[in-house]
């Protein structure tokens, strides 16, 4: 489990291709690798990956073909920065909201507005996911716990503060790029439960 509070953006220094997977080598800081062991879970752009090797603060992750297809890790190249968060430990402060590291879909950057007053990103997403996205609700964006801005039938806005831009890779994204999306699990459960109850009532009354 994760909190959606990105700890660092780290460079992908190598990508090794093999049958059905790619191995990512990510350069981390000594603070991030302290106590880290093989088998541990680390979120890369919000994707929960397993550490397969650690070598001089370089951390290796095997990314399966399905994950490469479903997330933007499939388009990640050497030199790109990924958002990194180590898994949640008991007793630590939770400043975001609970994320599983399981990406539901990707959203496409529709527009970026960067002025002296604001930094806004407009995202376009498959309309079926908008059932779970609400104004002022929580959402996971590349592993970042963020608040949803204005919504439409096919997308929503993000209003980013300078601290978020400094600590994450969201400022790297341009129009047409894909961003990993994790829907808030509690919202999804509530919406699905209500829709199921309403469907049963309609069936009974029909």
Automatic annotation (TrEMBL):
Could you tell me which residue ranges the Lumazine-binding domain spans? Answer: 1-97, 98-194
Task: Cite the InterPro entries for this sequence.
Answer: ATP_synth_asu-like_sf, Lumazine-bd, Lumazine-bd_dom, Riboflavin_synthase-like_b-brl
Keywords associated with the record: Repeat
Q: What is its EC number?
A: 2.5.1.9
Annotated Gene3D superfamilies = 2.40.30.20
| Swiss-Prot/TrEMBL Lumazine-binding repeat ranges | 1-97, 98-194
Q: Does the keyword Repeat apply?
A: yes
Enzyme type, top EC level: transferase
Task: Supply the PANTHER family for this chain.
Answer: RIBOFLAVIN SYNTHASE, RIBOFLAVIN SYNTHASE ALPHA CHAIN
- NCBIfam families attached to this UniProt entry: PRK09289.1, PRK13020.1, ribE
Record protein name field: Riboflavin synthase
| Organism, scientific name | Shewanella inventionis
């Amino acid at each position: 489990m994760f909190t959606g509070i990105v700890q660092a953006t780290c460079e992908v220094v190598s990508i090794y291709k093999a049958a059905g997977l790619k191995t990512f080598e990510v350069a981390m800081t000594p603070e991030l690798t302290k106590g880290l062991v093989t088998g541990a879970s680390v979120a890369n752009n919000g994707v929960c990956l397993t550490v397969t090797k650690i070598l001089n603060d370089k951390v290796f992750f095997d990314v399966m073909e399905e994950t490469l297809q479903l997330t933007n890790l499939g388009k990640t190249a050497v030199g790109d920065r990924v958002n990194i968060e180590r898994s949640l430990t008991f007793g630590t402060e939770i400043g975001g909201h609970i994320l599983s590291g399981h990406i539901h879909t990707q959203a496409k950057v529709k527009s970026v507005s960067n002025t002296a007053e604001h930094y806004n990103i407009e995202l376009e997403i498959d309309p079926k996911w908008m059932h779970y996205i609400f104004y002022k609700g929580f959402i996971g964006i590349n592993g970042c716990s963020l608040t949803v801005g204005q919504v439409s039938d096919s997308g929503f806005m993000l209003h980013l503060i300078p601290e978020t831009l400094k600590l994450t890779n969201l400022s790297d994204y341009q129009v047409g790029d894909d961003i990993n999306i994790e829907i808030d699990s509690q919202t999804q459960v509530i919406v699905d439960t209500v829709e199921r109850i309403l469907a049963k009532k309609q069936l009974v009354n029909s």
